[in-house]
Amino acid sequence: MGNNPLRTRSFTVVDTTDVGSRVGGIAVLLFVAIAGLIGVDIAADYLSGTEASHLLTEAAVMLAAFAGAVILWRQLRSARQEAQRLSVDLVAARQEAERFRSEAHDALRGLGEAIDRQFSRWQLSPAEREVGLLLLKGLSHREVAAARSTGETTIRQQALAIYRKSGLRNRSELSAFFLEDLLLPAAQR
Q1: Rounded distance between C-alpha atoms, residue 92 and residue 89, angstroms
Q2: DSSP string spanning 91-145?
Q3: To which H or E segment does residue 171 belong?
């Protein structure tokens, strides 16, 4: 796509499901191992004639370790299912966005050209044009600064210059200037 400021926001999804499953699986095994070791200790204590109250206390701890393993396993399974569901939703959302872009390609290109012509009429500098596009896209001043590798103060000054040159007061009016007619019901367009 090149250096298109309208495509600044892109998201990379890192699948941590496998790592989380391994760590969770190790934790479950650790709980089970602790419960098993406590069981061995109970057996050794029983054979050595340890008091019943001590054996009952250790048995309660062993049951708590098993219960922890079961609870953790269930949460892990639930998290895995949720991650799979979110993954499916993400694929669907990406497909929907691509379908919209494909269907609206000509209209979006025309809108982009119209915005560029209006920026020319306002005599915006190349930097102001780029900032204007990023503001129209919905990026915050901080996000624009990061995308352009410049300071947030510089972006604020450029945004003020855009508003001054356009005769608009703020980002809302800037967006409305270009998008207001797009939001009319079809019968009124």
Answers
A1: 5
A2: HHHHHHHHHHHHHTHHHHHHHHHHHHHHHHHTT--HHHHHHHHHHHHT--HHHHH
A3: helix 171-179
Which residue type sits at 150? T
Taking only the tens place, the pLDDT of each residue in 23-44 is 878 888 888 899 899 999 999 9
pLDDT above 50: residue 5: no
Tokens 């019943």, residue? Answer: 52
The answer to pTM > 0.85 is: no
| d(C-alpha 150, C-alpha 134), whole Å | 14
Kindly list the distances between the CA atom of residue 8 and the CA atoms of 27, 127, 130, 146, in Å, as whole numbers in the listed order: 40, 15, 11, 10
Beta-carbon contacts of 21 under 8 Å, excluding residues fewer than 6 positions away, are: 76, 80
Burial code (b: 16+ CB inside 10 Å, e: under 16) for 38-67 equals beeebeeeeeeeeeeeeeeebeeebeebbe
User: CA triplet 180, 185, 187: central angle to 5 degrees?
Assistant: 125
Return the residue matching tokens 């379908």. Answer: 99
